[in-house]
Amino acid sequence: MAKVKTNAMRILDTQKVPYEILTYDSKDGKIDGVAVAGKIGRDPAQVYKTLVVVGASKDLYVFVIPVEAELDMKKAAREAGEKSLEMLPVKDIQKYTGYIRGGCSPVGMKKNYPTFLDESAQELETIIVSAGKIGFQVELAPDQLLNILRGKYGQLTK
Predict the structure, then answer these.
(1) What local confidence, expressed as pLDDT, does residue 2 receive?
(2) CA angle, 37 as apex, 91 and 52 as ends, to 5°?
(3) What residue ranges in 13-145 does DSSP mark as E strands?
């Protein structure tokens, strides 16, 4: 099998960020974070999903939270300095990020949107996020992820 390099992986390589590639079979259509954690044999607490939201200002923000958690819109809005937030409609994800639902990586989006990582990641040595393609995840240190995204930690979940 040929080695797949996603845009996210190329950016991590360019920035000299060490990461491990984890792959899973997506033929069964189960691509939600909890299913992915099971497929890669990892604790769901270590696997994070990437959510894209729109603020009242119409600016976009990226929130990276544990797959089993739910984004607290009030806390997230406070972190982003917005009055309110709403999820970016699924039909708009590719237009704004370059990624599709289920394969949306916080690394390598079309623009560098303000990015926030749930503070729970600070307790972990590594976290796992989408590599930008369904079936591929990358495992890396949360501080290094935030460093290349110029993001910050925040209280984001319910």
Answers:
(1) 47
(2) 30
(3) 20-23, 48-55, 60-66, 85-87, 115-118, 127-133, 136-140
pLDDT tens-place string over residues 40-87? 999 999 999 999 999 999 999 999 999 999 999 999 999 999 999 999
Instruction: Give the pLDDT score at 3.
Output: 72
4 — phi, psi (to 5°)? -90, 130
Q: How many CA atoms lie within 13 A of 81 on its CB side?
A: 3
Query: Letter for the amino acid at 36?
Result: V
Q: Which residue has the tokens 């699924």?
A: 90
Instruction: Give first-to-last CA distance, the chain, whole Å.
Output: 41
**Mean pLDDT score of the chain:** 95
Q: What is the pTM of this model?
A: 0.95
**61 and 113 in contact (C-beta within 8 Å)?**
yes
Long-range contacts of 4-7 (CB under 8 A, 24+ apart): 4/133, 4/136, 6/105, 6/108, 6/131, 6/132, 6/133, 6/136, 7/98, 7/105, 7/107, 7/108, 7/132
**Going by C-beta distance under 8 Å and a sequence separation of 6 or more, which residues neighbour residue 117?**
48, 64, 106, 142, 145, 146, 151, 152, 153, 154
